[in-house]
Design brief:
The protein is mainly alpha-helical and 279 residues long. It has 9 helices and 2 strands, in the order αααααβααααβ. It has a two-stranded antiparallel ribbon with strand order 1-2.
Length: 279
């Protein structure tokens, strides 16, 4: 029990350092992106002119903000990277494991955390503007996390016969992919995100005012879509290979050559493959 408590404290401290580092790096990069030629359209706010904003400034901005594609892409990419890093740190601290826990074939991304970040932001932003209590935010965040884990875990197992986690061995599991203890963590994460992190994140993300920002976010969007599509193609072919289905065209042959089962095993080290028809 003492070890778990010490590990949790260490994780919180490391998480704070990670978030702080991401925030500083994002701020200085975003300042560069906001320079250059300006867009013709007028927008409400870009990146703030100072690293530390006041609560009044954030509240004024959040009162007029409408979350759009620009904010969603940045939140997804940032959440995917930060969540992956924190998960790997957690596994190192608690289990002594160092393994690749990425979710896409290219880049250091975990789409589960990216999607969770976007969902938490959109829903918690809506709840925040309606001045709901902390208990409601906690419960809604726990539900979001549980549904996301269940849908993702079930989808991976059903369509690709792969599995990245299982809570079946835990005494408090609800389903194979959802457990009470992690619902509690999702609730705490959503509460902290809604009350402390999200207002600052959205304020400094701002809205696009320069062509650099528009071009950059477009390139990132194309990259993420291509990454997701290639990941789906790789696992589709992996499932087909396990079933003895040969490639039907040049693209599938290329996938089999460059994204073999050996590549998938090395890239997704925490993932197990369930051959169809077996348990």
């Amino acid at each position: 029990m003492l070890f778990i408590l010490a590990s949790l404290i260490a994780l919180i401290f490391v998480a704070w350092l990670v978030v702080r580092g991401f925030a500083n790096a994002f701020y200085f990069f975003a300042r560069w992106l906001s320079g250059g030629e300006k867009l013709d359209a007028e927008t409400t706010l870009s990146v703030s002119g100072k690293l530390h904003s006041t609560k009044k400034e954030r509240e004024q901005y959040l009162g007029v903000l409408h979350i759009g594609w620009y904010q969603v892409v940045i939140l997804f990419v940032g959440g995917s990277m930060a969540g992956l890093l924190l998960e790997e740190i957690w596994m190192l601290v608690t289990a002594g494991l160092t393994e690749s826990r990425v979710g896409l074939v290219w880049g250091p991304f975990s789409p589960l955390y990216g999607t969770g970040t976007v969902l938490l932001t959109v829903i918690c932003y809506w709840l925040r503007r309606r001045h709901v209590s902390n208990l409601v935010v906690f419960l809604v965040s726990a539900c979001i996390g549980g549904i996301l884990e269940q849908v993702t875990g079930w989808g991976m197992l059903t369509f690709f016969h792969t599995q990245s986690w299982s809570y079946a061995h835990l005494p408090d599991h609800i389903t194979e992919f959802v457990a009470w203890r992690f619902l509690f963590f999702w609730g705490l994460l959503g509460l902290a995100w809604c009350r402390f992190v999200m207002p600052r994140a959205l304020y400094h993300i701002g809205e696009p005012t320069s062509r650099r920002q528009a071009i950059f976010i477009t390139l990132i969007s194309v990259y993420v879509v291509a990454d997701v599509c290639m990941t789906v193609a790789c696992f589709t072919r992996a499932t087909a290979r396990d079933a003895g289905v040969p490639p039907h065209n040049a693209f599938e042959e290329w996938v089999d050559t460059h994204y073999s089962n050996e590549f998938i095993s090395a890239r997704f080290q925490n993932m197990s493959v369930h051959v169809e028809g077996t348990k």
